[in-house]
Design a protein that fits this description.
The structure is a homodimer. By secondary structure, chain A is of the alpha+beta class. Chain A has three domains: about 1-105, DNA Polymerase III, Chain A, domain 2; about 120-240, DNA Polymerase III, subunit A, domain 2 (DNA Polymerase III, Chain A, domain 2); about 245-360, DNA Polymerase III, subunit A, domain 2 (DNA Polymerase III, Chain A, domain 2, Roll), CATH 3.10.150.10. In chain A, about 20% of the residues lie in helices and about 45% in strands. In chain A, the strands form four sheets. Chain A has a nine-stranded antiparallel β-sheet. An eight-stranded antiparallel β-sheet of chain A has the order 15-11-12-13-24-23-22-19. In chain A, strands 5-1-7-8-9 form a five-stranded antiparallel β-sheet. In chain A, helix 3 (about 130-135) packs across helix 4 (about 195-205) and helix 6 runs antiparallel to helix 7 (about 320-330). The longest helix of chain A has 12 residues, at about 5-20. In chain A, about 40% of the residues are buried. At the A-B interface, helix 2, strand 9, helix 6 and strand 21 of A face helix 2, strand 9, helix 6 and strand 21 of B. Strand 9 of chain A pairs antiparallel with strand 21 (about 300-320) of chain B. Chains A, B: InterPro entries: DNA_clamp_sf, DNA_polIII_beta, DNA_polIII_beta_C, DNA_polIII_beta_cen, DNA_polIII_beta_N.
Chain lengths: ~375, ~375
């Protein structure tokens, strides 16, 4: 194998594919990046769950394949001067030259690198990268980390004529984002569940630009394509929560508040709460005012946040982290909180326009003195 | 105790004094900050080695003292809105109010807080903060962490009519910085050794401004004063290395190079070296060229850096980290390297002007094949 390419482009490609490389594995090849110099130069990282492949513009003089340890390979290329990098390998020994620098390092047999699954085309959709990125990041936090219900360790992608809906749920809260898409192919409606770990990488691969990203659903896998980069993940199998039935929509109390002001108030009261000293937030929805308080062995804290609307004095308890996660994710300066009783969920929605997000947080029981 | 003050000023004072607070101590008061409301509001942190005291402008309505846990106190004040904070304590319970936020937390008995040592005035000097900060940061890295020679776990401050010289040494290398000072009081010449841990805090307290900092040497302690903040540390006792005799000054080889280019070359070759796979740098000083190479189980690396001057082909081994530390600290774009043989130290100096820095790195033995 012999090729040369620009240092900056190679560095970007290593950084992208490294995201799917196992940091520590019993199979040494899985700690590496597969380099394939053919008609183009392809770099692949694959941890058996998620695979990322990207193409680097390169001048290929001799075809070949090799696996290089991702960490060392990445560090060497990062520290090389901004110049053309030349690679030449014989057996598993690779010579890397750039400017006045030269390295000889040992690679691994590419035969030991597992093959990326192929995604048999079923259905697909196209939407701007920036939109996909935002939708993922604003729902990913509610994905469950409880492996006893594997289906909820991923997010549901639901596609219909209205667009794409992404839903995450973990038993204590629910996050939903809805947006229109540019194009849809295949079935009238389709849905699939993507593991949270893969979505976390898709989010990083997408940029804040309007260039398109495509999502292709295969029989057992799903593929995301963003520019020259492709990510493949297995789909999660099982029955996802029938979320529409789970969300109460005839709530009797509607109040509106400033997202950042709500967050600041909750954040301050939360100072008294720690992993060791847990306590729910006691929220009282008064007329145009939310009173938040809590009490632990450290002391007590009280805060107020102005709202518009009358909560009728409803008292309800919340896990501070769950409420903050939802408010942090909500892509709006103002939000509407819908409530009914002290034992029914709180639903967080936009105050106006299309209902493009919905967060639901279940209440926790308040004990006297908390 | 009852007082009110500006949130931002209080936050800055907590952040400064927290540096001298023990993160974990068997005496709970040592994990706290002492608040003393008298004619002014004083905050003190003291971990029995280093003490930091600072003054906060405050409106004091009732005098008193209290100790508050530094971590919680700091987090509460940091998250309060930008407004006037009101404190009111009764026994050890303190009520903190700011805007619509209110906290009640428990403090500790101030009687349990150890008294800061008083520094009996002997000698003192004054120099700009920015200069003191730079001198400390450019020598601190060479302080020894070997407790078997406690005197070398600090830096030597030597004051004479020429100014201030700070020297650190750890048995493998030496760092020296010299600068003029604004004012000197007391003895004609004097010297003392300040613990590295205290200097690390002094460096952070000093800003990049020309406002003066004063250093006062007491019989057993040393005091740094920077604006409204004062740091007290015990002095290290013992015999510091007679460093002037240790530095070879009649070196036969003089070469000059670009500091950043030298650093980049060494940094790249060092990629092959890790904590587990140690190997010295093999440096060959040729005519106008430094060749650097090394070899470990990972592979081998080679780099070149242009120099001006002839090294006559001298081959010498160095610990990569020690050479990089010195070059990173050197406050100059170009440096002069002085060498004599493969077993004598390398001295790093300015290429021109006053000799305001000197770094010395001892060589390491090269084995065949390294």
């Amino acid at each position: 194998m012999k090729f040369s390419c620009e240092k900056a482009l190679l560095q970007a490609a290593i950084s992208t594919t490294s995201r799917a490389v196992s940091p520590k594995s019993s199979i040494p090849a899985l700690e590496g990046i597969l380099l394939e110099a053919g008609s183009d130069l392809r770099l692949t990282g694959y941890n058996l769950e998620t695979g990322i492949r990207t193409i680097v513009p390169a001048d290929i003089r001799e075809e070949g394949t090799l696996v290089l340890g991702a960490r060392l390979f990445g560090e060497i290329v990062r520290k090389l001067p901004d110049d053309i990098v030349t690679f030449q390998s014989e057996n598993y020994m690779v010579n890397i030259k750039c400017g006045m620098s030269e390295f000889n390092i040992l690679g691994t047999d590419p035969e030991e690198f597992p093959e990326l699954p192929t995604v048999e085309y079923q259905n697909s959709l196209i939407l701007p990268q920036s939109r996909l990125k935002a939708m993922i990041s604003q729902t990913l936090f509610a994905v469950s980390d409880n492996e006893s219900r594997p289906i909820h360790t991923g997010s549901l992608f639901e596609v219909d004529s209205e667009g794409l809906t992404i839903v995450s749920v973990d038993g204590y809260r629910l996050a939903l984002r809805h947006e229109s898409i540019d194009k849809k192919e295949g079935a009238e409606t389709f849905s699939f569940v993507v593991p949270g770990a893969a979505l976390s990488e898709v989010e990083k691969i997408c940029s804040d630009v309007d260039e398109p990203a495509s999502v292709t659903q295969g029989a057992r896998h799903v593929m995301f394509k963003v520019g020259d980069t492709m990510l493949v993940s297995r789909r999660l199998e099982g029955e996802f929560l029938a979320y529409r039935q789970a969300i109460p929509r005839n709530n009797t109390i509607h109040v509106e508040g400033d997202t950042r002001a709500l967050l600041s108030s909750i954040d301050r009261v939360s100072l008294i709460i720690s992993d060791k000293l847990k306590s729910p937030l006691r929220c009282v929805f008064d007329s145009n005012l939310l009173k938040i308080s809590t009490k632990t062995a450290i002391g007590d804290a009280y805060d107020e946040c102005p709202l518009s609307g009358d909560g009728g004095g409803l008292e309800i308890g919340f896990n501070n982290k769950y409420l903050m996660d939802a408010l942090k994710a909500a892509p709006a300066d103002k939000v509407r909180l819908e409530l009914t009783t002290g034992v029914s969920p709180c639903v967080i929605l936009p105050t106006e326009g299309e209902e493009n997000f919905l967060y639901m947080v279940l209440p926790v029981r308040l004990k006297a003195g908390e």
